[in-house]
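Table S2 (text version). Query chain:
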Amino acid sequence: MSRQQAEPHIRYDFLVPAGLEEVPKARRRVVELAKSLGLSLDEAAMDDLALLAGEVIANAIVHTGASCTVCVAASGSRVQVEVTDVDRADLSPRRADLDDETGRGLFLINALASDWGTRLDGAGKVTWFTLGPERALADGPASTSTRTAPSCCGAGEVSLPGAAQLWAGA
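Corresponding structure-token output:
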């Protein structure tokens, strides 16, 4: 009788300091970590991964002015990325005008990710997405509902430096 072993749960976590100049380094690190997971993601999927990771990390920093924690893990044949920030407010996509330079991040995530969502965490909010060998390319606007997925970053809450001070002011 053969017994199947469960795949080891490999995940990587790192802290991104507050500051938009940190986003390109964090985006590259997400791609490097995803490559080390050994998933079958082609170059186009890796480009999408870099774009989406940069959007979520930049949003976390811009909207909180604080650092964020990033988790990269394998979820079956997909990579799952989670960004935890200190803001407990729900995400709400907005319509960007043609000449606006911001406001399209959630639409990009909705269009390119296999799945995505948000959930509240003891530190604030977790925004997550998965990306796999298949390309999502969904039609229509990003959903405004909160979708949850099991945490790829372990059994619980992520602690962010300064989170207690920010909650006290909320």
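Notes on Table S2: Residues 96 and 104 are 6 Å apart (CA to CA). The chain has a mean pLDDT of 76.
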